[in-house]
Each structure stands twice: as structure tokens, then as C-alpha cells.
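Sequence, please.
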């Protein structure tokens, strides 16, 4: 196969970064998880990732032959240059609304290009205006690879089978129902969106991790953290057997570690159900370091682990007599194997950002081997981080 590709050096710095984010959104392994961070690097917020993700999905749906290279490729394809041209013109629309009319992109993608352009303008990201189809040279034999997101949007009706209290601040809710007959999970740490039906078209829905799936009884176990503020936390506090819910999924999940690697797991209580499901499936000889931040000692859950798993419990400690600790600070000053391994981290969004930067810049972790997802964000309802998969 021969394709038209060009040296990436003809792109501006902003174009290169935007391109890296767009490519990461459709790439394999942990790359989609990093896309939000790439967008943040050019001044966009991670919450704006969604519209860029929709754009690249729509582009590939409209044109399955769209030639998208790998996130760190030193080349740029003609298709990618055309997309950058469209985005550049959309981002400068306010400056010159007549530009960009000759860009040939599928019409269904046009609205999304405009939305992305609006996001770029909002973030004051000034893109280059370029014409599509620049001078070309043909380089044969390079193939692209596109991996689509897992997606299961079927809504299943379920009922609460039982409610437990493993620690004072957590409700363990077990859900069952006929609709789970066909339910399957294939990876640890997969999650679903649980909805509180209220008769409206837009019921409250939040993401929760499948802590355990009983494939015989077809029952799903969730550990829901109580935190005073949100509707889902309030619901869990008063949950009773027989309560009706709906759920969609599963999505995401832990995809394993590279050969001869070691594993870092770090989370607050929202990521602990995922860690519990991950450690149940790890090989016995894998070296694992877990850092888990919880309110205090009473919130320490039971975690069944292999001998090579080292756990460090970190207590926020509301007590005035003891110093509080935080996940990112403890991790920063803890000894870890000198060579970067694989990392899986989930906690509050700003904490995740700090830890991810530390792992990449100071601990030698490779970008594609750090899975970092904000599972909630201070001050934001239903925080959506595409990195969760
Ligand atoms: C993939 C994924 C898997 C998750 N798995 C789990 C899980 O297994 N168990 C679990 O407990 N959570 C899990 N979470 C986090 C959970 O979805 C959020 O905490 C969610 O916001 C809770 O919904 P809510 O209705 O209670 O609060 P929201 O209405 O979403 O938020 C209301 C307010 O509460 C704050 N808030 C939200 N969560 C917390 C918190 N944990 N502590 C303190 N303040 C908070 C928000 O900042 C906001 O100001 C997961 C999130 C993701 C993305």
C-alpha cells in the first residue's frame, strides 16, 4: 500500500501537540488515557477532550480509510494535514469567517470541527491557517492502526440483592436481575454506569467499578464511597434490597503488564474496588507496590494479596493529634524500583495529574505504560475522564 505522508516538522508546535492528542484518542494500549493530558498541554481542559474524541470518531466512521498515524510518528499523513487545516480554519473563524471553505471533509464532521474550533478559540489556541493537500511525496509500506473504544450502551434493569457495610464509609451493593444473564466481564477493573431511574429521560448516572462479578449467580458487587454531597452517594447510604436501578456497560479495564515489568497501583477509595479486582488476577511472582489513600484506619478494607505485593496505607486523618498524609506526597518520597514499570492510578483528578507528571518526569515511566484516570473531580458532578476507557 502506498500513502502520502510528510515530515511532521512542517507542522507548528501546537499542531503537533493537537495531532498527538487526536492520534492518542484512537490508538492502542494506554494512549487514549493520555489524550486529555496532551490537550491540557496546549491550554485546553481535560473536560474538552470529549468533543475532540467525538470528532476523531466521526472522521473515522465517515471515512474508514482515513490515514491516522501513531501518536509519536515523525510523519503526518495527508488526511491528518487536511484535518489540521480544517481545525486551524475553524479555530480562526472569529478572525476570518471566509477561510476554510475549500477543505474537503465529510459533511457530517463539519459540525464537530466547528465545535472543536470553538473550544480552541475559547482556550486562545491560535492555529495555523493552511490549505489542504500540500506538496506531497509518497512513502510506501507504512500501515496505520485504529483501535475503537469498547462500548456497550445497552441499558439493563437490575435490583439491589443486598447491601453491606464493609467499612463505615463504604456501602457494598450487590445487584442482580434477569438482564444480567448475558452480562460478561473480560478484564479486571471494568466499570459500568449506574443510573437512578426517576421517570425522566435523563436520570442521574455515575461510574462504578465492578469489584466482583459472580458469573454463576450473575450478580455484580460494587463498593460505593459515601461522601455527603452527590445523589449517588446519598442513594447508597439508604440503599435497600429490592431498589430498582439501571446500568450500562461494562467498559474500560486493566489490560495487564508488560513482560518482565513490575506494577504500581495507586488510588483513593474510589479506585480501591478496581485495585481489589486487579490484584485477584495478577501472577503470584509479579512485584506490586500499592499506595492506597483512605480517610483513616477504620476505612481499611480487606485486600487479599500475594506475598510480593507491598501495600502502603495512607491516612488523611481528620484527627488533630496525627498528621494527615496524601497519596501524591507519600508516593513522591517512597522508594520504588529504579526502572519504570507499569502504573495504574485512579483518584481525584488534580491528584492524578500531579502523580502522572511525577512518574513520567522523575521516575522514568514510559508514557504508554502509565494508566492514569481522574475518578472524580473536586467541585464537579459526574466528572468524565476519557482516560477511564
Ligand atoms: C471509571 C470510574 C470508576 C469508578 N469507580 C468507583 C467505585 O467503584 N466506587 C466509588 O465510590 N466511586 C467510583 N468512581 C467515582 C464516582 O463515580 C464519583 O465519585 C461520582 O462522582 C460519585 O457520584 P455522586 O452522585 O455521589 O457525586 P457527584 O454528583 O458526581 O458529585 C457531587 C460533589 O461531590 C464531589 N465528589 C464526588 N465524588 C467524591 C468522592 N469520592 N469524595 C469526595 N467528594 C466527591 C464532587 O466533587 C462534587 O462536588 C468511579 C469513577 C470512574 C470514572
Amino acid at each position: 500500500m502506498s500513502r502520502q505522508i510528510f515530515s511532521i516538522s512542517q507542522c507548528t508546535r501546537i499542531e503537533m501537540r493537537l495531532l498527538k492528542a487526536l492520534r492518542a484518542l484512537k490508538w492502542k494500549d494506554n494512549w487514549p488515557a493520555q489524550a486529555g493530558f496532551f490537550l491540557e498541554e496546549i491550554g485546553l481542559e481535560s473536560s474538552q477532550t470529549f468533543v475532540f474524541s467525538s470528532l476523531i470518531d466521526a472522521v473515522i466512521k465517515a471515512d474508514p480509510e482515513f490515514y491516522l498515524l501513531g501518536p509519536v510518528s515523525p510523519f503526518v499523513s495527508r488526511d491528518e494535514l487536511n484535518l489540521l487545516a480544517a481545525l486551524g480554519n475553524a479555530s480562526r473563524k472569529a478572525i476570518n469567517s471566509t477561510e476554510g471553505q475549500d477543505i474537503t471533509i465529510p459533511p457530517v464532521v463539519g459540525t464537530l470541527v466547528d465545535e472543536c474550533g470553538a473550544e480552541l478559540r475559547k482556550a486562545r489556541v491560535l492555529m495555523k491557517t493552511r490549505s489542504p493537500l500540500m506538496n506531497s511525496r509518497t512513502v510506501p509500506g507504512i500501515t496505520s492502526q485504529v483501535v475503537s473504544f469498547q462500548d456497550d450502551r445497552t441499558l439493563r434493569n437490575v435490583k439491589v440483592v443486598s447491601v453491606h457495610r464493609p467499612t463505615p464509609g463504604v456501602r457494598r451493593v450487590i445487584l442482580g436481575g434477569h438482564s444480567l444473564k448475558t452480562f460478561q466481564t473480560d478484564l479486571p477493573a471494568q466499570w459500568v454506569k449506574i443510573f437512578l431511574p426517576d421517570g425522566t429521560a435523563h436520570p442521574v448516572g455515575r461510574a462504578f467499578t465492578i469489584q466482583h462479578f459472580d458469573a454463576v449467580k450473575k450478580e455484580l458487587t460494587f463498593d460505593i464511597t459515601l461522601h455527603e454531597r452527590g445523589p449517588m452517594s446519598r442513594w447508597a447510604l439508604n440503599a435497600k434490597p429490592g431498589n430498582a436501578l439501571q446500568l450500562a456497560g461494562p467498559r474500560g479495564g486493566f489490560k495487564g503488564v508488560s513482560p518482565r515489568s513490575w506494577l504500581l497501583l495507586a488510588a483513593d477509595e474510589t479506585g480501591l474496588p478496581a485495585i481489589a479486582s486487579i490484584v485477584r488476577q495478577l501472577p503470584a511472582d509479579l512485584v506490586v507496590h500499592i499506595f492506597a489513600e483512605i480517610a483513616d484506619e477504620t476505612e481499611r478494607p480487606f485486600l487479599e494479596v500475594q506475598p510480593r505485593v507491598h501495600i502502603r496505607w495512607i491516612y488523611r486523618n481528620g484527627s488533630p493529634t496525627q498528621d494527615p498524609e496524601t497519596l501524591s506526597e507519600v508516593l513522591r518520597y517512597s522508594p520504588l524500583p529504579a526502572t519504570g514499570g507499569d502504573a495504574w492510578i485512579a483518584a481525584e483528578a488534580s491528584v492524578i495529574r500531579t502523580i502522572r507528571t511525577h512518574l513520567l518526569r522523575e521516575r522514568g515511566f514510559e508514557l504508554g505504560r502509565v494508566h492514569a484516570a481522574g475518578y472524580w473531580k473536586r467541585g464537579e458532578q459526574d466528572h468524565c475522564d476519557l482516560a477511564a476507557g
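The longest strand covers residues 156-167.
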